[in-house]
Amino acid sequence: MKKIKQIVAILGVLLLLFITNILISTGFFRTVKNQFNGTIFKEVPIKGAEDITLNALDSFALVSATSRNKLPATKKEFGGLYFIDLKNTDFKTTLLTANFPTSFAPHGISMLKTDSTYTVMAINHTPKGSAIEVFTLLGDSLAHKKTLTDPAMISPNDIVLLDENRFYFTNDHRYTEGIGLFFEEYGGRSISNVVYFDGKNYTEVAGGIAYANGINFDAKRNLLFVASPRKFLVKVYSKNNNGSLNFIEDIPCGFGVDNIEIDTQGNLWIGGHPNLLRFKAYAQGKKKTAPSEIIKITYKEKGNYTIESIYTEDGSSMSGATVAAPFGDYIFTGNVMDSHFLILKRNH
After folding, report:
1. pTM of structure
2. Counted domains in the chain
3. Does some domain include residue 6?
4. CATH of residue 158
5. Distance between alpha carbon 4 and the CA centroid of its chain, in Å?
6. Which residues contact 69 (CB under 8 A, 6 or more apart)?
7. Average pLDDT of adjacent 10-residue blocks, the chain of 348 residues
8. End-to-end alpha-carbon separation of the chain, Å?
9. CA 20 to 30 Å from 297, out of 36, 255, 318, 331?
10. pLDDT confidence of residue 321
């Protein structure tokens, strides 16, 4: 009997430590204060605008959005990709995928200019599985070219193009159900990955990541950045000619970093979640709001970077920020499930 009590006591202590680790590592105890040196310029009535990317030179942005009723999706969704004209401050939006023939729940997106056209790729989640949709954008006209599928797309989250055929994407989980999924999300197991497609083959090029999420590539510096929200950090890699990666360092960010955008000066802009448990409850419809945060990282070289807090908010204006795309004084910031996304304007 005494031995049984000792075992029960040990198990109780281990359970307490496990729960305490979950609460601390997900930001449960953090107090979020509203902070932004600027104003809300406009609310754009597009629901679930999870990813936004823009081209400052050609003055337009693309938005990936879908009306997520639940995460992960269990029913067909008919979301879309939207075009935003940045040439004037009306910021007119146009739905580009009204005629997409099947279920379309876009997640991460990437675009790359080739000659006068853009190649656009979007992660698509359907009840039958995930895929990558490939489009060509000319002006504000979008044409669907093909659908890519592969067993390597376990739980694809975000994508970044190198050219018309080569790209990287992240899998945010190795397991999509059961006890494996539980320990990834609550235990913070670092077992998700980055996959490289060379035009023919899919190859894992980085592993050991806790919830690999946003991904972006700086061609000028040959650096790949990957968000790991479950560990509150951004992972930095250099790219080799064959697409393989060399790990450089982790950048601790203090919150659940999501998508990564790179401005014209090479700075990283990241939206994310100060409290991952609150965000999880919000995404499941158990809470009405979840806090948001935006940072800018100025990265020079290994060990030489600065992090600037741009925006923190308790969720009353927008919940669950996932992306921050800067354009001049404006920041286009999307989210997972709100009925609108925000265009912020910074003060000088």
Report:
1. 0.95
2. 1
3. no
4. 2.120.10.30
5. 46
6. 75, 285
7. 75 77 82 94 96 96 87 75 96 94 93 92 92 94 95 97 97 92 88 97 97 97 98 98 98 97 97 95 90 97 97 94 97 95 94
8. 70
9. 318
10. 96
- Predicted confidence at residue 186, as pLDDT, reads 86
Place of tokens 């990813």: 51
Residue partners of 70: CB distance under 8 A and separation at least 6: 283, 284, 285
Which residues are CB-neighbours of 145 under 8 A, at least 6 positions away?
Answer: 134, 135, 136
Q: What's the CA angle centered on 329, arms 325 and 334, to 5 degrees? A: 30
Rounded to whole angstroms, how far apart are CA atoms 250 and 234? 6
Strand intervals (E) in 58-210: 60-65, 80-85, 93-95, 106-114, 117-126, 129-138, 141-148, 156-161, 167-171, 192-197, 202-209
**Domain annotation covers residue 88:** yes
Q: What is the pLDDT of residue 38?
A: 97
44's enclosing H/E stretch is strand 38-44
Of the candidates 106, 237, 108, the residue with the CA atom closest to the CA atom of residue 160: 108
Question: How far is residue 97's CA from residue 83's CA, in Å, rounded to a whole number?
Answer: 10
Q: Edge to edge, what strands does the sheet with 167-171 contain?
A: 156-161, 167-171, 192-197, 202-209
Considering only CA atoms, which of 76, 141, 84, 142 is closest in space to residue 104? Answer: 76
Q: Is residue 259 situated within a structural domain?
A: yes
CA 307 – CA 251 distance, rounded (Å): 9
The reported pLDDT for the residue numbered 19 is 81
Phi then psi for 87, rounded to 5 degrees?
-75, -20
Nearest to 272 by CA among 200, 221, 199, 211: 211
- Bridge pairing between strands 233-239 and 245-252: antiparallel
Q: What is the pLDDT of residue 72?
A: 58
Residue 60 belongs to a domain: yes
Distance of alpha carbon 300 from alpha carbon 25, whole angstroms? 28
- Domain limits for position 250: 31-346
| H or E, element range at 36 | strand 35-36
